[in-house]
Amino acid sequence: MHAPEFAFERDTSNVAKEAKKLGVTYPIAIDNDYRIWRAFNNQYWPAHYFIDASGHIRYEHFGEGDYDRSERVIQELLRQAGAKNVDTSVSTVSATGVEQAASGQSNISPETYLGYSRGANFASDKVSEDRPADYHIAALPLDSWGLEGRWTIGDEHITLNGGTGRIAYQFHARDLHLVLGPGKDGKPVRFKVLVDGQAPGKMHGVDVAADGSGTVTEQRLYQLVRGSDGVGEHTFSIEFNDPDVNAYAFTFG
């Protein structure tokens, strides 16, 4: 089941492309109007609901990780449904990047949307909705973010309008992710990440080199920081060297 969070995720061609990349060959139901989402009273991406042969939800798991437990639940439900010779082995899952389980700590920075409809904790100048404006990064309290450069803050995302621009966030977590996408022309956008004013080094995420360099090539979630020493407070900064990049939301782990 696929329920979109952002407009580009409503495009079934994007869903098909990601499914192919992940090796998913079974049918995927598209829930663009959130009817199934609301029926389950769901609040999470991803969410796993394990339903038995009688149609009852027997187990739930939200977020990444706990793959062994999920597989054993499936095996047990198959046996209860009368399946014979159910394989009791557990597949080896080599989760990397955003597929890895979160830190599990509850005091990490919250998911933060950058568009004005759901945006919060913006520490730069007053928001100018749907039109280009110059922004400057001021002091950043914990869990706040700011902009440097000329940006348009739209309903669900922000867009860099020419030249270079920067986004900064004062966060408390192990991992930092940012949903990004190139502009309408689809041209790659180069960026440079700093953590506490320096290249991330061993704290770099899977979408960033140790020197902080990376490129936005498609609309998706990018892992930019993967803390090597667990959860901590850090100042994150990403500077874009090309215009027209779109940024949607921060998530943390």
TrEMBL record:
Sequence ranges assigned to domain DipZ thioredoxin-like C-terminal in this UniProt record: 109-253
One Pfam match: Thioredoxin_10
Domain of life: Bacteria
InterPro entries to which the protein is assigned, alphabetical: Thioredoxin-like_sf, Thioredoxin_10, Thioredoxin_ResA/DsbE_sf
PANTHER family reported for this sequence: PROTEIN DIPZ, THIOL:DISULFIDE INTERCHANGE PROTEIN DSBE
Full protein name: DipZ thioredoxin-like C-terminal domain-containing protein
Protein's organism: Raoultella terrigena
